[in-house]
Amino acid sequence: MLRHLRSRTNRNKWNRGAKRSITLTETEKKLPRNGDGISYRNDNSNHALPTGPHQPFKRAKFSTTGPDSFKLLSMEDKRVEIANYDPRDIPTLKHGLETVLFEKGLHISENKHSKKTSEYNKRINGKASHIVQPHEIDMELVNDFVTSSTDPVLRELASEHKCKFTGSTSSVSGLLTNLYFLITRRYQVSTGALKSFDDIRVKFSGATNKPENVNLRWNGDHYSIDTIPEKNVSNRILLELGKTMEKQLTMNLDEFKKLRIGYEGTPADIPQEQYHYKKMYDILLRSQLDCYDEKLGKTFDLKTRANRSIRFNIEEYASYITHIDKILGRHRSFETEFFDLVKSGLIKYLFQVITLVETF
Prior knowledge:
Radius of gyration: 26 Å
Number of strands: 8
Helix content: 25-40%
Order of helices and strands: HHEHHEHHEEHHEEEEHHH
Shape: globular
Strand content: 5-15%
Largest sheet: 6 strands, mixed
């Protein structure tokens, strides 16, 4: 036993102090080393990243300083705008809700304790404040999401403009989020603007930090980036709720009630989804146009979100339908909901907007 221990000690001493000589090939010398950073493209190579023999995994050390850390790509003369939509075909806000576009601040649809809110409610249709549950809607009448690989217009434009990749702002936002975490080393969430949470050091939620999985499908002459469908059946209620609420906010009440299960009158006239396309380098991205306002002269996104009591009890969500009854505070408040949003889904929303602004 003593001899065995001595032999192990000698081996460990040799491993710590000995210097082993390693001969690198010319290809291996081009591989990024710790602290070198990774460039998107080597000037002397047509490959996106250098290739070579399998290397043992090492924790990468990225430096955000120095000219060789990251390569800044110029967008001049690399963007091609492809606008093939009519603003008149894009949905608009109904029920008087368009007034929120020109008034800053938080607008509460229903609050009996606030006189100011009651005055605001006089300008909107009170029936629009009632959220219709997805199980009351015939989901077959609601437009289903069209993936990048099945979009015929996107496929035709990709061939016309000789693009190598196609995708949507929603399918690439998760990838951009992971790149952001890589560059910033998972920078912590800033909550200084929230009075009830300014003393808490918060990281992004586990669901936000998880690796992003996408399907890269070969589509004849290019690759399509598709999101992987949600396998968790219980989470579909949130997706369906987002679809039905979007229709509720952009359709007249008489038309919207035609989507209800059991309606026996004339079927509702559901317009097709409108998209905008933009090319950057050899990537063609698609953005869905949720809403348009003529006075504003711009399009904007509609985002819906269930409160935390529903999100944390999604399988029995009907038993946890509660209302937010205050602005500030750590319980049942708008501030709490915004705090949860900041450390979870907001970063993906921001990347969708940034992609929209930078590309469209």
